[in-house]
Amino acid sequence: RVPHFPPCNPNLSEYTPCHDVDRSLQFPRERLVYRERHCPLEESEFLRCLIPAPNGYTTPFRWPESRDMVWYANVPHKWLTVEKAGQNWVRFEGDRFTFPGGGTMFPRGADAYIEEIGKAINLKDGSVRTAIDTGCGVASFGAYLLSRNILTVSFAPKDTHEAQVQFALERGVPALIGIMATTRLPYPSRSFDMAHCSRCLIPWGQYDGLYLIEVDRILRPGGYWILSGPPINWEGHWQGWERSKEDLSSEQNTIEAVAKSLCWKKLKQRGDIAVWQKPYNHEHCKKSRKVFKKPRFCKAQDPDLAWYTKMEDCLTPLPPVSNITEIAGGERAKWPARLTAIPPRVSSGSLEGIIPDVFTKDTVIWKERLAYYKSLNNALNDPGRYRNLLDMNANLGGFAAALVNDPVWVMNVVPVEARVNTLGVVFERGLIGTYQSWCEAMSTYPRTYDLLHADSVFSLYDGRCKMEDILLEMDRILRPEGCVIFRDDIDVLVKVKTNIDEMQWDSIIYDHEEGPMQREKVMVAVKQYWTAPAPAQTDS
Question: Structure pTM?
């Protein structure tokens, strides 16, 4: 029997299953546990309906215009402009929001702020390619780093500022709903070149520095941590921050002490910005454990395990080195050579079955596959037609790598059920991604992505969860008129097509790029444009 998928109630147009406010209130407020992922567990809780776009929803502005403006009908949260009045974050102008590029810590604009950071860190030589912005606001920091060839994953919780991540995604900037609370961030160790916090309200000094310990885990050797806002430069701001000198001084001293215990080096504090650097290896750090009893080095837990994995108050050890000048884990090439250079995790032989030759061939294969996709869907040849892309089973990131010259960004998902954990390779290539189980909903808003790529997703999840639930999640996060490219065995695709014919998607199955004798086929589907009905008029 083919399921029927009716439209959901219009008031569910922004439904985020794993960050539902009503469900979150069942969980402890201590350490902000209630703001973490809490997904529906019982089938009776699953929505088996299609999330509508809000009435008046309009095709988003194309990049780069979208960086600076979005339609009000798409993100109808005018209150944010009131709450952030005077902070130059976002303005409401008629039928749209505009983003001046400012923010609480960017009074001269995000570009000028990034230039200040560039005086402490070389942001131009390709050594910094991936960044993470904690408590990102509307992600202006990440938006303005894009012009410098730096890809930023921005995240913020769904709370009183619930629309901020939604604004970021509507702008065409990578973002996820997330929070630093009790579980690890969904990234492997040694992922990011740079981490950033500007007034992000994370209590860095509390819980024995647990959150800085987690930042250390996800920073690559030699990576940077940037902090601006309280308590940095408290001497000049303490009255405006309405906190005592003693309180702010104590907070800064605690942060400095935690950073030292992690063996970070403070590079510079200039004005409102402070920059620290993680060591390239842990040779000196091992000796300093005699001075710093905490945090101890972790022993048992896999440093790349990060899906519902509790944070630990221990320092993730870097891979061993043969001498004090060596970079732990291997040196990464600078961008753009980094994209196709053999990643250290591959050259070291740490991933089962993935040798340099496999990696090189994968890169070539995906260039050929992308060319084939563009012959099937001409919209892929239209620059700006698609901006936000999601690869649901990214493997080595080959699909994203093939798209590097197109004006798009790709969120590369490595499913937690995948046989080999390859997400570290994705980051070593200078790409971004996250862990995810497709038996659950993603930590993002409806209508996040313009194009989804589903390579063998349904074969991977056969017997693990229902096909219809994965397809409904795909429908939730796909924009109206968005595209899905499926690759899978023909028998699987026929079942998928039967379901999506009931979901207001148009689809066509094509032969494999190597011809009709291949059992694997390609299906291209497009979600039809439809929105929630207009609210009924009432007589006054």
Answer: 0.96
